[in-house]
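ok so I'm stuck.
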Amino acid sequence: MNKIRNFFSSNEGFKRYFKNAAWLSLEKLLRVVEAFFIGLWIARYLGPEEFGILTFGHSFVFLFTAIATLGLDQIVVKELVKNEKDRDEILGTTFGLRLIGFIIMTGLIYISLQFFNNDVQTNKIVWVIAASVLFQSLNGIDFYFQSKVQSKYIVYINICMVLISGTIKVILIVTNAPLISFAYVFIVETLITAIGFFFVYNMKKLSIWKWKFTLQKAKLLLSRSWFLIIGTIATAIYMKIDQVMIKEMIGDRAVGLYGAAVKMCSIWLFITVVITQSVFPSLVAAKKKSQQLFLERLQLLYNVLIKIALLGSILYTVFAEPLTLLLFGTPYEESTTVVIIYIWSIVFVYLSNGSWGYYLNENLEKFSSIRLVIGALINVGLNIYFIQWFGLPGAAYATLISYSISGYFVNAFFAKTRPNFYLQTRAIVNFFNLKTWLHPL
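replied:
not stuck anymore, here's the structure
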């Protein structure tokens, strides 16, 4: 117990951050439960083909969302922490930049759609989902509360949004609503969130009408976020490009089958987000004390992550077929093969998420973007050939290989990240070490 207490730290500062992370974890848990269970209900209701159209629309827009967000999230939070007196200028400039980013995003979507052979319904779904991104311009309020370590206010809003959104989706299913209705839910979600942000911000006796946009602040924010923009775009590509390419190379039904497999596996992502966010403050504290203590705690983190990821992958591999039939039904039986392959990419997602503790504490943020670009390029290249050669399983193989390279193997090729590679490798080896199971922390 003493080791566990030491690992999670006992100082007041850490307790504050841990409590904040707990609120975020609660929200993410609710989001995962809603997205997974109601999501699979939607998949069963729509069937592989219509679910494939909806999945394509979301994936296609997601590829361009990084243009609208401009990678400003972490930068804005840091600026608000350092210069709270400039709050209105920072938030006003962030709001303006995101509006400009949204306009650029819609232009790029319009141009890109000219190269796709979509029907009218598919394009309409794309534009409806794209419109929802507009309301994310008010996310600067979220960054403000993050900077004050008061995320519980944002959690309240998001929980209300999830509950309302989930209720609407259930109503749409039981009333036999058409496909396009589910696309409009994306707008409802972001609109509710924006209204909630506005309300809470005013409740704290603050006003968005005092925000102001300045070119000087815009240049400062963009100069610090350009590499994060690249990394965010790269992340979007290697997370969603496979589903967009499947639509063009095979068809709507194939996207639905693949999307169902991804949804089955994605529920495991919640666990790694909760663990890494909760432990991160402890890693920062350890880094301040000594490099050795920092690496020891990071090793313990990897040990825990790899055990969860490998156990989950083995479980899905063994029970993939009955799980798929239970959750999605007979029309999605072909998703089984994809699940068996795709689930192993979760191992490298866990290693990748754990790596943020290393990159951020060692000031290697730019490298984190470089590895994501490498992963994205490999993913696109492999998908071009693997989907042609192997069909749907090919896309899963492409994801597995690209995730393994960007999240693990790439660390071995750079001197500054090689220590991280050794920690990750040791964690894999420790999976077979009984001692690390008996005393994980």
